[in-house]
Amino acid sequence: MRETSRLDDADLDLVAALQVAPRAPLSALAEVLGASASTVGRRLTRLEDERLLRVIGQVEWPMLAEGHPMHVWVATAPGQAREVARHLSELPEVPFVATTTGRSDVYCSLHAARRSRARELLMADIPSVPGVRSAHSELVLRAATKSDAWRLHRLDEDQLSALRALADPRDEPAGTAEFSADELRAVELLRRGGRASAAEVARAAGISQSTAYRLIQSLLRRGLVRPRVEIEPVFLGYALEVVVAVQAAPGAIQEVADTLARHPSARYVSMVAGTSAVIHHGVFRDEEGLAGLLTSDLASLPGITACEVSVVLDVLRRYWITREDGRLHTGGGRVVRDGVSGPM
């Protein structure tokens, strides 16, 4: 995680470009960045081979589960935080796990395919993990922003305009929970490889290339899959990651969530049901940036009554991808939704 110098300016520019247009052809990315397609291709391959970067597909919640995710804070016995986090990271229903300071020793998110399975995890599985002393959970009601919207600000407006023209068009996410077997298979492939072509999806799913192309375009346009760059923030110069639990008056919750969603640090902001009202998961270059959020940005919002900060020490899993010193490992769980095997 300390090897932030592995990414030079050209690497960072490529990351910033992919954040805007994750599925853009190499030739188009190269034109925007003022490089050759072969150079851009080599850089992308190197970052992938070194397990620093991967373009994945962020899947909308109705395709994953009956309900919404939960935030879970876990208190552990002294010296057991790392082992508890490791155990939790092996659960297929847990997409994010980190050791933390502040509110708890371990913070994780929970997203089970079935509500009954979520109850089992909260009432039996997690409390029975050796070293766990207690767990506090809060239900996500609505996400104000997700990680696909976070940006590394490096490119000029002309470059951004060109990249936006290359990005896949997208409507509002579909609310239906009925999906075909072919859609779920295509979703799983796109989740693991957000730049997968119609030919690659067709071969892996056993369908025609024309059918695969229509599926991909439909999933992208409906916002059911949102391609995004997966890379640890520390490699981009953001050494400090926090989870801020904000308490606010009921009438102020929506405004607080929407305002925090626009904050440059915001990777994931959600309205929750629990002792908190809004959870702000953000990244900062240093402590001064966090101080600004707490003493200026939050202080200027009416209706906030208190906040509690958990500082992330070590991320073991993010979006179902295991991490080790920031490097991405392969793998990921599967769930069965409505009798069909799908992504998790």
Major β-sheet, in short?
Answer: 8 strands, antiparallel, barrel
Give the oligomeric state of the chains in this entry, treating copies of one chain as homo and distinct chains as hetero: single chain
Low-confidence stretches: 1-5, 332-344
The run of helices and strands is: HHHEEHEEHEHHHHEEHEEHEEEEE
Tell the overall outline.
Answer: globular
Give the number of helices: 11
Radius of gyration, taken over Cα atoms and rounded to an integer in Å: 20 Å
> In whole angstroms, how far apart are the ends?
26 Å
Q: How do the strands line up in the largest sheet?
A: 2-4-3-10-7-9-8-5
How much of the sequence is in beta strands?
25-35%
Structural class: alpha+beta
- Quantity of strands, as a count: 14
Range of helix content: 25-40%
Which whole number gives the mean pLDDT? Answer: 91
SSE layout:
Elements: H1 9-20, H2 26-33, H3 37-49, E1 54-59, E2 70-76, H4 81-89, E3 96-101, E4 106-110, H5 115-125, E5 132-145, H6 157-166, H7 181-192, H8 198-205, H9 209-221, E6 225-230, E7 240-248, H10 253-261, E8 266-273, E9 278-284, H11 287-297, E10 304-318, E11 321-324, E12 327-328, E13 334-337, E14 340-343
Antiparallel strand pairs: 1-6, 2-4, 2-5, 3-4, 3-10, 5-8, 7-9, 7-10, 8-9, 10-11, 11-12, 13-14
Helix pairs in contact: 2-3, 2-6, 7-9, 8-9
What does this structure look like?
With 344 residues, the chain is an alpha+beta fold. The protein contains 11 helices and 14 strands. An 8-stranded antiparallel β-barrel has the order 2-4-3-10-7-9-8-5. It has a two-stranded antiparallel ribbon with strand order 1-6. Strands 13-14 form a two-stranded antiparallel sheet. The longest helix is centred in the N-terminal third of the chain and has 13 residues, at 37-49. It starts with 8 loop residues before the first helix and ends with a strand. The relative contact order is 0.18.
